[in-house]
Design brief:
By secondary structure, the chain is α+β, with helices and mostly antiparallel strands. It has three domains: 187 residues, Elongation Factor Tu (Ef-tu), domain 3 (Beta Barrel); 67 residues, Beta Barrel (OB fold (Dihydrolipoamide Acetyltransferase, E2P)), CATH 2.40.50.100; 106 residues. Helix content is 29%, strand content 36%. The protein is built from four helices and 22 strands. A hairpin with a 2-residue loop joins strand 16 and strand 17. It starts with 5 loop residues before the first helix and ends in an 11-residue tail after the last strand.
């Protein structure tokens, strides 16, 4: 009998070993990525983008028409009540003020003293007329003069008396504190008030947000020249998906980060939740008070807000990509038991974009497949390669959810 060649035996053995290896691998199933369920602190926040607003703004305008001669402020400048913002041309009104002041000076220095002299002369004239009438009566008693001459003397006396009354009235009107002086001073005050309107001043303290005027512009009454954000409370207004309404409450703490200063977060709190929903966008307006206000914060800045809505000191956390058939607070996972796949129903608690809390159905240390949608039958054998979940190496995971603007932050 011919001996079997040694090389053929070796080749056969190798073939058997390789076939056995592949058969064993086939029996073990495909190699799939998996996660290990772990327990850790969990904080749920709603994240959205809003804008910084002052609680109230005011528009500053001019009460008169005029050409701008000077503009003294820029956007972003702080102003106090009474600060001069711009100056309008006012030559006509200024000329009228000077004319009225000259008339007052003339009244005091010339017209009033002349009225006093006229009053004195009228008193002297009346006294003279009185004496003349007395003499004429004596002459008329002895028929030394005619009745016509007597009548003329009486008429002259009456005229002197009228002249005296007129002089007295004029002297009183021109006296210090009299009607003429009061009228002139009132006219000057009115013109001065009109002249002052050429200097547009701030009525409030705050920050200049916008300016709508330049030197040389012709402005009209009612035209908005500046918009000022009043000093006081500052808010961040955020539209949140209405599905988050049940998670929100007044005075909930939050952290805000301005897009322009990402390394400078600052604390805020919910101060207002709108009583109605925007039906077109499906959002609810939420306002967050800022106190203290960072010095870098500006009106209309874009700000991201993380509102803390719930937390757990210790929770089982599962990556959302390991969930399938999610319906409200229930889902399905592919659990591994002794290398075999088992579909497992789980109940969820806090929900986020990338991770959720498991309330029941799993335990710490359980291994699940990363892809919960894999078409594997119960009992199918698989090999797994453990992967680190997005939050596996962190001490604290923040799960967040908002339909339009949600994001997840891991600290």
């Amino acid at each position: 009998m011919r001996a079997i060649p040694y090389k053929l035996i070796v080749s056969a053995l190798l073939l058997i070993i390789v076939s056995g290896f592949f058969a064993f691998r086939w029996w073990q199933g495909p190699l799939l990525p998996s996660y290990r369920i772990s327990s850790m602190p969990l904080v749920q926040t709603v994240v959205a983008t809003g804008r910084v607003v002052a609680v109230s703004n005011t528009d500053i305008g001019s009460e008169i028409s005029g050409v701008v001669l000077k503009r003294l402020v820029q956007e972003g400048e702080q102003v106090a009540a009474g600060d001069l913002l711009l100056v309008l041309s006012s030559d006509d009104v200024a000329a009228q003020v000077r004319q009225a002041e000259a008339e007052l000076a003339e009244l005091i220095s010339s017209t009033r003293p002349q009225a006093v002299v006229d009053l004195t002369n009228a008193e002297v004239a009346l006294a003279q007329a009185d004496r003349n009438v007395e003499r004429r009566r004596e002459l008329a008693a002895i028929s030394a003069i005619s009745d016509e001459e007597m009548e003329q003397a009486i008429q002259a006396q009456a005229q002197a008396r009228n002249d005296l009354e007129n002089a007295r009235l004029r002297a009183n009107a021109l006296s210090s504190g009299g009607v003429e002086e009061d009228l002139l001073r009132a006219r000057i005050a009115a013109l001065q008030a009109q002249l002052n309107k050429a200097q547009v001043r701030s009525k409030v303290s705050g920050t200049i947000l916008t300016r709508n005027v330049e030197v040389g512009d012709l402005v009209q009454p009612g035209q908005s020249l500046f918009t000022i954000a009043l000093d006081g409370k500052t808010e961040i207004r955020v539209p949140l998906d209405e599905r988050n309404l049940s998670r929100l409450a007044l005075q909930q703490p939050a952290v805000a980060i301005a897009d322009a200063y990402p390394n400078k977060p600052f604390p805020v709190r919910i101060s207002f939740i709108a009583p109605s929903i925007d039906p077109q966008r499906g959002t609810v307006e939420v306002r967050l008070s800022v106190d203290p206000v960072p010095d870098f914060l500006r009106q209309d800045m874009t700000v991201s807000v993380n509102i803390e809505t719930d937390q757990r000191t210790k929770a089982l956390v599962i990556s959302n990509d390991a969930l399938a058939n999610v319906k409200e607070d229930s889902a399905e996972v592919l659990l591994l038991r002794d290398g075999e796949v088992q579909r497992q129903q789980v109940r969820l608690g806090l929900r986020g974009l990338s991770a959720s809390e498991v309330l029941s159905g799993l335990s710490a240390g359980d291994e699940i497949l990363v892809d919960a949608t894999a078409s594997l039958a119960d009992g199918a054998r698989v090999r797994t390669k453990l992967q680190a979940a997005p939050f596996a190496n962190t001490d604290k995971m923040r799960a967040v959810k908002d339909k339009n603007q949600a994001a997840e932050t891991i600290n």
